[in-house]
Amino acid sequence: MPRSRAEMIETTRAKLLAAARRAFQQAGYAATSMDDFTAAAGLTRGALYHHFGGKQGLLAAVVEQIDGEMDQRLDAVSARAPDAWTALRERCRAYLQMAAEPEIRRIVLQDARAVLGPAPDADQRRCLASLGALLRRVMDENAIEGAAPSALARLISGSLSESAFWIAEDPEDGSRLAQALQALDLLLRGLRRQ
């Protein structure tokens, strides 16, 4: 049975995304040519331009894919936690640990920031809303003092983001991750209701 046009488009997009993701992780955005990943995908530059507008658009799509996977992983961490406080703590810790993963480090925290700039407002709003809802649960369980969840979410999210960028610049000995996790525990303990 012949494939539909939509299936062919999705297959082409998936091939380009997979090839670019491998290339960006291994060599980085700057050192990867469009010919490298179009050849690896068995496609042409025309397909790349048609589906993503160019190399930068393909990077944005790869980052969006990885961000979605990170969100799923963080949601799973929260879901496994026995209470909202533990969900908050483990979710924050997991985010910082992801910053040390080679693919996330290079593609999301280094190349995307350099090439694409700050995360789109919609992504930031989604992240802040999710964190704010979790903080509301923590407050409802009386684990922390009451505060405006949106304000607290911005403070925590900003701290996590800057720490993640700092971890991503680590010369791979892992000391920054360990330091950030220790500092995170200190910061979160300061929120606990006595």
Shape: elongated
Determine the CATH topology of the largest domain. Tetracycline Repressor, domain 2
CATH architecture group name of the largest domain: Orthogonal Bundle
- SSE ordering: HHHHHHHHH
How much of the polypeptide forms β-strand, as a percent range?
Answer: under 5%
InterPro entries: Homeodomain-like_sf, HTH-type_TetR-like_transc_reg, HTH_TetR, Rv0078-like_C
DNA-binding region: 33-52
Domain HTH tetR-type: 10-70
GO molecular function: DNA-binding transcription factor activity; transcription cis-regulatory region binding
Topology, pairings included?
Blueprint lengths: L4 H23 L6 H8 L3 H8 L2 H26 L3 H15 L3 H15 L4 H20 L8 H20 L6 H15 L5
Keywords: DNA-binding
InterPro entries: Homeodomain-like_sf, HTH-type_TetR-like_transc_reg, HTH_TetR, Rv0078-like_C
GO molecular function, one term: DNA-binding transcription factor activity
Question: Which keywords apply here?
Answer:
single chain, 194 residues, mainly alpha, Arc Repressor Mutant, subunit A, Tetracycline Repressor, domain 2, 2 domains, 77% helix, elongated
Description:
This is Transposon Tn10 TetC protein. One of its GO terms (molecular function) is DNA-binding transcription factor activity. InterPro entries: Homeodomain-like_sf, HTH-type_TetR-like_transc_reg, HTH_TetR, Rv0078-like_C. Keywords: DNA-binding. Residues 10-70 form the HTH tetR-type domain. The chain folds into 2 domains: 1-53, Arc Repressor Mutant, subunit A; 59-190, Orthogonal Bundle (Tetracycline Repressor, domain 2), CATH 1.10.357. The protein is mainly alpha-helical and 194 residues long. The chain has 9 helices and no strands. Helix 1 crosses helix 2 (34-41) and helix 5 packs antiparallel against helix 7 (121-140).
